[in-house]
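Note to self: keep these together.
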Amino acid sequence: ASGTRCTQMSDTSEAARTAPVPVPPPAATMAVCGGIEALQLASSPNWPSFDGKAVLVDRSPPRSPPDSSPVLTLDSSHRGGGGGGGVMDHLLPAPVVMGAMVVTGEEEEAEEDEAEELDSPLLFLKQIATDDEERRKAGVKLLVASLQSDPAQARYRGTIARLAVLCPYEDVRQALSDFITAKGISVSPQLPPSRFFGLPPIQHSEQTTKLLKDLFVQTNGVSNIDLLLAATHPSYLSVHAQMLNAVLRKSSVLPRDCRHYVALLAAGTLHCQYLVDAQESEFLATGGKRCWLCGIDCAPPKFRALLPILFTLNNEPWLLDRRDIESLVKGSDPQAKGTNLWSIGELVSALIIATTFFALADVVFGCGINPDVEEEDPGGFYIDGIGSLLTVAPLSVAAQSPPPLPPPQFPASGGSKHVAFDLKPNDARDYNWSDHGYEFVQRFLSEAAPLLDKLFSHTLTMPDSTLGAASGDADACRFRRCIWYYVHSMHGIVHDDYGDDIGRLVPEPLRRCLAALAFAPASLQRSDFEEACAGMRAEDRAHVCLIGAVAHMQACLLYGLRAVTEYQSC
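Structure:
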């Protein structure tokens, strides 16, 4: 925003906490439905399902995790690592692990045609993801027919049980429920969308129901992020879905599978397995090559070159400059050309996608999003040493990424205390979204620019939120902006006219929580938000998380766009 300048915070922060432990699902009572054992949620009014009835329980023994695959460390020479080591030190390529057997990319490609219908849940569900009733009816018949085999039932039992309760189309819910009953299939209980707080019931207005149907058609499923937002802030979900659809699915200079691969890499830099799993499925469903999932060394050179930039963009975006952009556009090899290099348009698209998924990862960790389906067959790649594109050893949060910047201190009287970054003066002050970023994005992605602008403004002005309303409309808006500007300040962008208000309106526990959300979201625990948002409703807690996440997104995006602008100006 205008009137900003670059600063470095001078005080210290608490050590990062360990990763959160999943909270058990809500209390449940046993029920019998059509001969199938089921769980009746005791808190069914808070469960955002369509019928509010039952979820099925699995009586099979737990699946043993596959053996850990060999680990190969990537050496980092990229500058700007921060802390003791390079930001690439924990990026470890490894083969895909199927069960306990390591499968190479060549072996997988040989079997790819035979198992295409089971490649991913998205390909599996594509035949029913349509708003045309006749096509959907025919698709349901094909889907049920493909589920007759035991392997298909075992692999997708969690997905079909979830859709039997949560699919926004009644005919799909009914057909899958009948199939489950007829086959006597038992599946694991469905966890609520959030393990951090209970949710209000979804208000199934005509507008919300249509939104959920549109999302089902676009994404071939129902995600817990969508359910959480539909229950807490449906207006935000609508704006966010429009923006994400334009960035990932509409026409662009970057092919669709490549866009999902960038999203996957961005989610991996934050160790967000939830988003990695989702984008792996999207990548395969849009024609992505499975061998790219065998490790970053198996991906094309242009994506290998992009990865260290993504780490810097998320961890220390103020270090990005024209040299980083030049390395992507021109490459280190003077003879390099064609598909190994990035065009400016492709790079702008990649920056928007990456920062969007930084924000989504913040929401996943900040709202404690549970996995959509837990018991799917391990056909993809995993984080935390099980075998993945981004395999990481089980390290502490502090070892996984550079330490977060210490949060600034804003005394109740007086401005913020800071020392200047080692950057050119006025860089951040002279580059903001409304005056520079919007116009630059519009040159390359004309449809995405206004949707990004709408997302940024709507996050602060959300009409279906009561965040800060207790202190009056004026202070409510100011409180939300204080959260936004506090996150900006941790990225070196300080808004002078809000220094005193941040110290007055944003309590210390909330500042600590926002600092973790911006720089170490995987460290967040349920107790952090309970302390920081004491007395707030679930909707307001979610709104705090959304403001912090989107402010983080905008700050990183501005630094990335500024670096591209500098490169073009040379």
